[in-house]
Amino acid sequence: MTLINKESPNSLALDLSERIRHRIQSAEFTDGDFFLTEAELAEEYNVSRRIAREAVNRLCALGLLEGRKRKGLIVRHPDPVEVWANCLPSLARSPEKLADLAHFRYALEVGAIELAIKNASEEQITQLAALAEEFQQTAGTPEDRPRRIEVERQFHGLILEMSGSPIIADMQKLLATLFENSYPARETPVLAEETNQRIIWQHFELVDAIKDRDVERARSVLRSHLKYLLLTPPQTT
């Protein structure tokens, strides 16, 4: 029997949840395997049923366990993107956390450009060039603002898809959607013509750099293009 020191209920539940998580990972359970019941956990770790339930609830919230009536607990291997999707709306309510997420998005996109260039197909590059053209057509017209934002999302999403990593691509989609919802098109200002032209040029320059398989050039353009994400609070383009 594993003994847990007498501490506050929250500390006990957190400690127990970490022990259970480590046990699940160390034992290499497969998705859908049966684990223990709350009663069995409470007895084995010498804690109250309430502490065992709180620990289990923490792991269920993370998607690592699933409770089944009259059957006990089932081990799950959660999709990390799905877990993030459940957490992001709460994080977006804090300006500080939103700024952190903007920095994360910057690091994700700039960091993935090397993989994108390495793995991009000619068909994807052609699609990217078409999106750059459409972005240019919508960039200067206020009434086309929603379409401009959608094309921008597709442009960056395609670059992340080029990386060949579904997790990277899906994370970028989550973050892009988060910032679109945090800064609706109707609340963002119409950009000056000089700024519009610079952003249009950056799109075409990114396409050319990817086409030429020039990592450093693409990374330099992308850093400049996404530098607004490093501002506090984050701004939009």
Written overview of the protein:
With 237 residues, the protein is mainly alpha-helical. The chain folds into two domains: 9-75, Orthogonal Bundle (Arc Repressor Mutant, subunit A), CATH 1.10.10.10; 82-230, GntR ligand-binding domain-like (Four Helix Bundle (Hemerythrin (Met), subunit A)). It is 67% helix and 3% strand. It has helices at 9-27, 38-44, 49-61, 80-91, 95-119, 122-138, 145-162, 166-182, 193-211, 215-225, and strands at 65-68, 72-75. β1 and β2 (72-75) form a beta hairpin. The longest helix has 25 residues, at 95-119. It is elongated and about 70 Å long.
Question: Looking at this structure, what is the CATH superfamily of the largest domain?
Answer: GntR ligand-binding domain-like
Poorly predicted sequence stretches spanning 5 or more consecutive residues: none
Q: Biggest sheet: strands side by side, in what order?
A: 1-2
Distance between the termini: 58 Å
Structural class: mainly alpha
The figure for the number of domains is: 2
Protein name: L-lactate dehydrogenase operon regulatory protein
Organism: Gimesia chilikensis
Domain HTH gntR-type: 10-78
GO molecular function: DNA binding; DNA-binding transcription factor activity
